[in-house]
Design a protein that fits this description.
Alpha-Beta Plaits, 4Fe-4S, 6 helices
Amino acid sequence: MDLQTCLKKMQLVGVLAFATVDSEGAPQIRNISAIHYEENALYFFTARGKNFCKELMDDGRVQILCYTRYKEMIRLSGKAYAVTDDEQVKWRDIIFKEQPYLANVYPGDTRSIGIIFCIDQAEVEYFNLGVNPIFRETYTLGHVKTREKGYMITSDCIRCGKCQEVCPQNCIDKGTTYMIRQNNCLHCGNCYEHCPVKAIERK
């Protein structure tokens, strides 16, 4: 798996869930399909009068989620910004060409109510529940720093093996200090809760 394959899978899914936060701090989610994919960015269309547009203009932070028929979850976390005025028509026309239904929603000149946003800096997480053990990996779009998640076993480990016994994915290996295979970890915290000496830390 890699970033480009993740973006292609998102494109094939088509309709994605976009999450933002409104002015009162409440989460808001919309399904969006008016999206164009480039190798290093994605562009999407919405109307200027929508609350979605206001939230993007006010803050810009957005999470995008898709789920495939193969039990794969792809989550993109980034910041959206409106493209420059001289780029608006170019990307809008590309999106309308790729998504013909939009001409029915915004016929003729009414498409000018739309605004194109771009995301070119993001963290992209891939999580496959359809394999055993599960598989997860994180990629970057642009130049962003990824956030470490999950759990790690510290040098306080006494090698009792309790964490290994309770791991639902059997992704903890023996050693001088036991080690979690991060790409196969659910981040469920079962090892953390059962360690008798609290040698496991949340990242």
